[in-house]
Write a structure and sequence with these properties.
The chain has about 280 residues and is of the alpha/beta class. The chain is built from eleven helices and twelve strands.
């Protein structure tokens, strides 16, 4: 077994699994929903037994509890899902000479608007979600043969009761009714298919360490939405200005990522805002 993807029925995990198969890689995806080898992050010993049996060369952990308000309310559950498993996965992968790839977050930066943050930029933790993801990074580093990926992505889940940002955006544009989007929340969102390919390219090069993967541009949620509306020739005047400060749980809002490092390593450019939006429109089923 070469590649093992944890959380393979989630948004990113599912795309990673598809991309691996497209590249003719030997891959297996595990989640709490898979029929065989179901995983449960509350039963770590069972997970480690499965890993011992499968003997993967590379583990990609895409499991994550990303509902920021829920993480704030249920901090112990958030820690048990987002952070603690990495303590055991890291020790196991180190012992068995396995590369560990951890999908982290960009929710570490605040107060500097559209600045692009490097991998060594100073971090500020504002909520439980960010705390658990940063703790997961610390645990991941127990195995030197690791990749920590800081990113912000969107794609299509195709579940009406659990929409992604792009799905929510398209639905609201098509309703032709006014809606609000943050003009003071900045990020470097990348389309999920591009992210998936970059991850496998980094693994192919045997990269180790922390790295940003995102669009080469930094933009507000509102600007992103306007770009999508322009491509689809939908009414961008429907998009009204909102503020991240209106949200219940305080969160980082300056999530721009400097992707100079990944571009230098891979010797190709990350997609621009325009390209990300074009990719998302093209991949709409």
């Amino acid at each position: 077994m070469d590649y093992l993807i944890l959380g393979s029925t989630g948004l990113l995990g599912k795309t990673l699994l598809t991309t691996a198969k497209e590249r003719n890689l030997e891959v297996l995806g595990l989640s709490r929903k898979t029929k065989k080898y179901k995983i449960n992050y509350f039963k770590i010993n069972n997970l480690l037994k499965i890993l011992e049996y499968l003997k993967p060369k590379i583990i990609i952990n895409s499991v994550g509890l990303v509902d920021i308000d829920f993480c704030e309310k249920k901090s112990k559950i958030a820690e048990k899902i987002n952070a603690l498993p990495l303590k055991y996965l890291s020790k196991f992968s180190k012992k068995n000479n396995i590369k560990l790839v951890q999908i982290s977050t960009d929710h570490f930066f605040t107060g500097d608007q559209n600045r692009k943050h490097k991998e060594n930029s100073k971090i500020k933790i504002l909520n439980t979600y960010a705390k658990t993801k940063f703790l997961a990074e610390k645990y991941t580093k127990l195995n030197k043969n690791h990749i920590i990926i800081r990113t912000n992505f969107t794609g299509y889940r195709n579940k009406t009761n659990n929409q992604t940002f792009i799905e929510w955006l398209l639905e609201n544009l098509k309703k032709k009714k006014n809606f609000y989007l943050f003009d003071d929340f900045y990020c470097s969102t990348i389309d999920i298919k591009s992210l998936s390919n970059v991850i496998f390219d980094l693994i192919d090069l045997d990269f180790k360490g922390t790295i940003n993967i995102g669009s080469r541009d930094t933009f507000s949620k509102k600007k992103f939405a306007i770009r999508v509306a322009d491509i689809l020739k939908l009414d961008k005047d429907l998009i009204l200005e909102g503020s991240v400060k209106s949200l219940k749980t305080k969160r980082a809002e300056s999530l721009g990522l400097d992707v100079t490092k990944v571009e230098r390593i891979l010797k190709y450019k990350m997609p621009s805002l325009k390209k990300v939006c074009e990719n998302l429109v093209k991949n709409k089923k």
